[in-house]
Specification:
mainly beta, 6 strands
């Protein structure tokens, strides 16, 4: 599984603030991938794609409020 983490100096976080953070990506050759963004304010965005084609997208604000929590199956149309 290949993994990379990139730091970014400022990007709009889910709470609306401009915040620095880290973007972490992991993937394998069979379709599994994790795409996580963590902001310095505490907000987090994740997109996980599994081997069977299912996708889970979750956005959590720094105070813990879940702004988005969606799952799809390989048979559903899913836009992010």
């Amino acid at each position: 599984m290949a993994a990379t983490t990139t730091h970014f100096p400022s990007q709009k976080a889910p709470c609306g603030r401009a915040a620095a953070g880290d973007h972490h990506i992991e993937s394998d050759d069979d379709g599994l991938s994790f795409d996580d963004v963590r902001f310095s304010c505490g907000c987090r965005e994740t997109r996980h794609t599994y081997h069977d084609g299912c996708i889970h997208v979750r956005t959590v604000r720094h105070d813990g409020k879940v702004l988005r929590d969606e799952r799809s199956t390989e048979h559903e149309a899913f836009e992010v």
